[in-house]
Write a structure and sequence with these properties.
mainly beta, globular, twelve-stranded antiparallel barrel
């Protein structure tokens, strides 16, 4: 019969289906590489397009047997731009258990207003809050401001001044002023997106003839990521993050944290 010879077109192509299967395999197998999730400032280096946009990034790892580990991570961001005015909102949450006992518990919220003076120059004002149980950080509240600059189509940078209030377990709270300097590189092809961001946040102190900041209290971060497009709005992403705090809140804490995370990212 004629209708039996009709061949229905697949919802997605064979290449996309294989890519999706591969992404799921990578996602649930390579998360064992992760050392620790580090709270990262909002992805504010990129130019924001008109209207509403955003992304949701999720990672998960479950292992049962000789070791029992349950781990989930969620990162959601929303951007909105109307002419010269733009808003950036981001939330992150990470939680893990090992044999029924918590082994990771952190959260992060960030809000930023950006006013474009020119297409290549803007002023940022932001505020954020974070906590990390296993770094003994009960609360960290930060607010600050400074310029954002688009150097080329691939390079952007920012120089901000911020104030932070940190409350640590058994240590009370402290208030510090810091510079927050960053430079970001991004390169895109039809399916690939590569990016590198560097942050340098020295603690400010009373100015003298030699320096405006304390060289013994500096926080640095490097984030390198590669993203591959599976479907029109779905990507698989791998991110390497290395952060250093030259003056950790407790002597027994490591000054360097490293994480390797594979995740699925949905753009809208």
């Amino acid at each position: 019969m004629e209708w039996m010879r009709f061949k229905k077109e697949p919802f997605i192509g064979e290449f996309e289906m294989r890519s999706l299967i591969l992404a799921c395999f990578i996602l649930f197998s390579s998360l064992t590489l992760q050392a620790q999730i580090v709270d990262v400032p909002s992805k504010s280096g990129s130019k924001i397009k008109e209207g509403l946009s955003g992304e949701v990034e999720a990672s998960s790892f479950i292992y049962k047997g000789n070791s029992e580990v349950d781990q989930v991570g969620l990162n959601a961001g929303i951007n909105y731009r109307d002419g010269q005015h733009a808003g950036i909102f981001q939330v992150k949450r990470a939680y893990a258990e090992s044999r029924g006992e918590p082994s990771m518990d952190s959260s992060f919220q960030h809000a930023r207003y950006r006013f474009y003076l020119e297409d290549y120059l803007a002023l940022d004002v932001f505020g954020e809050h974070s906590r990390d149980v296993f770094k003994a950080l009960n609360s960290r509240v930060v607010y600050g401001a400074g310029p954002w600059v688009k150097i080329t189509d691939h390079w952007t940078a920012g120089v901000l001044i911020m104030q932070e209030k940190e409350i640590y377990v058994g240590k009370g709270y402290e208030i510090n002023n810091r510079f927050s300097n960053y430079v970001s590189f991004k390169y895109k092809t039809d399916r690939w997106e590569l990016s590198q961001t560097l942050y340098h946040q020295p603690k400010m102190h009373k100015p003298n003839l030699f320096t405006l900041y304390d060289p013994d209290d500096v926080r640095m971060l490097s984030e390198t990521s590669g993203k591959y497009q599976l479907l029109s709005s779905l990507y698989v992403k791998m991110t390497l993050t290395v952060s250093q705090d030259t003056s950790p809140p407790k002597p027994e804490m490591h000054d360097v944290d490293t994480s390797v995370i594979t995740s699925l990212v949905l753009h809208f």
